[in-house]
């Protein structure tokens, strides 16, 4: 990771650059385009979005002149534009995943079904795929990773996203031989299981954010999904359904992450967790059984043990995504991926009393939120993964507020790609 800057500079000095295809020109995509335009050896050469203006505005804000932006749905015209060092704006997602000139594709849609489609098509076209879409990853990531491995390409989550930032701490500590006790993140806002786009509207307006996206953070679904991604990458599990959500400062973390019989708050070790009070940071709780190591950690002012905290007080979301793009391109390695398969499952819970015949909406909506369970617990309940929820899913019976929704409770009125891939994954694993 430390020498990516030199690899990119060398690539540019050789007259070349990594050609990135992007799907989704919302907040994350716009920031990424501008960041990459400031870098050496990389460019977002084609972007797809439902609205062309989103793309042209993103390129314009990145400093790209209007005459360098080619709007087209035609593959041949798009290839020609890229070969002439221009950039392409399109509404055709498959143009991004199939264009021969593209080296790495980034999904920044945040929509599980669309993300699954993008990853599937990208891997079939033997291109690396970077997912800024943890919802799709925790639902069908294990199968997509297996496909990518078989195709000789990289399937990866993104640096800068909290799971990616946590994984960097995990890899650092694991490489040095520390015992890793817990992995976690701060939560930016108080947990409100009833949050929805209407209750989040005013705050979203002040922040310039989507009310639906903000509601998905407030109701805890995003936190559950993010720690689900960490669970699938490491094998660490929630200490209890939904995790604890302790309130703490960074200095208090080592004491909290001890077993209850040792004065802490845990039932076991190797857990994923979220903490109120340390956002926007991420952390790893580490320990050692070596006397000399503990003495040196104390000398280094890391605390008195037996636990120590590695804390990173920031994550730069899509602004760091280029690091994952470069890592995939140069080193054929992922930042984070579901190495351990399905270890956790973010299941679907009724946000309010729901009636038979009612359609579910989506993550951050009015009907459901996500809760992280161990995968074995979710399977025993036949619980519906939150990533499979969309407006084509209808309830066959009434569900009480707070109850977990199962596969038996729903039917699809129109089958989606992510359901098909999840069905294949369930048979495969």
From TrEMBL:
Residues 345-411 form the SAF domain. InterPro entries: Asp/hSer_DH_NAD-bd, DRL_cat, NAD(P)-bd_dom_sf, SAF. SUPFAM superfamilies: NAD(P)-binding Rossmann-fold domains. GO terms for molecular function: NADP binding; oxidoreductase activity. It comes from the Bacteria. This is NAD(P)-dependent oxidoreductase. It comes from Ornithinibacillus hominis.
């Amino acid at each position: 990771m430390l020498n990516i800057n030199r690899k990119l500079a060398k690539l540019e000095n050789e007259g070349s650059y990594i050609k990135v295809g992007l799907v989704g020109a919302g907040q994350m995509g716009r920031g990424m385009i501008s960041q990459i335009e400031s870098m050496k050896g990389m460019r977002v050469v084609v972007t797809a979005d439902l609205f062309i203006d989103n793309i042209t505005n993103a390129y314009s804000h990145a400093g790209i002149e209007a005459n360098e932006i080619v709007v087209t749905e035609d593959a041949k015209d798009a290839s020609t534009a890229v070969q002439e060092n221009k950039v392409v704006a399109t509404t055709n997602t498959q143009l991004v995943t199939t264009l021969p000139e593209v080296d790495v594709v980034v999904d920044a849609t945040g929509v599980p079904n669309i993300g699954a489609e993008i990853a599937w098509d990208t891997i079939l076209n033997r291109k690396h795929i970077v997912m800024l879409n943890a919802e799709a990853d925790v639902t069908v990531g294990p199968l997509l990773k297996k496909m990518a491995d078989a195709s000789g390409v990289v399937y990866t989550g993104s640096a800068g996203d909290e799971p990616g930032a946590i994984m960097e701490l995990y890899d650092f500590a694991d490489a040095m031989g520390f015992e890793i006790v817990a992995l976690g993140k701060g939560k930016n806002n108080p947990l409100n299981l009833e949050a929805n786009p209407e209750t989040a509207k005013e705050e979203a307006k002040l922040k310039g954010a989507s009310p639906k996206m903000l509601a998905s953070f407030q109701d805890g679904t995003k936190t559950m999904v993010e720690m689900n991604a960490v669970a699938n990458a490491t094998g660490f599990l929630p200490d209890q359904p939904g995790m604890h959500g302790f309130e703490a400062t960074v200095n208090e973390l080592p004491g909290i992450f001890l077993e209850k019989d040792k004065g802490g708050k845990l039932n076991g070790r190797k857990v994923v967790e979220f903490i109120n009070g340390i956002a926007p940071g991420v952390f790893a709780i580490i320990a050692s059984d070596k006397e000399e190591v503990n003495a040196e950690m104390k000398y280094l002012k890391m605390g008195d043990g037996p636990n120590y905290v590695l804390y990173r007080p920031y994550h730069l979301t899509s602004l760091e995504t280029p690091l994952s793009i470069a890592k995939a391109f140069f080193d054929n390695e992922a930042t984070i991926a579901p190495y351990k398969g399905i270890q956790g499952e973010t299941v679907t819970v009724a946000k309010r009393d729901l009636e038979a015949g009612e359609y579910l909406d989506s993550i951050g909506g009015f009907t459901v939120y996500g809760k992280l369970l161990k995968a074995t617990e979710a399977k025993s309940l036949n619980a519906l993964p939150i990533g499979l929820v969309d407006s084509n899913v209808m309830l066959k019976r009434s569900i009480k507020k707070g109850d977990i929704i199962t596969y038996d409770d729903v039917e699809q009125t129109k089958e989606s790609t992510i359901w098909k891939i999840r069905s294949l994954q369930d048979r495969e694993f």
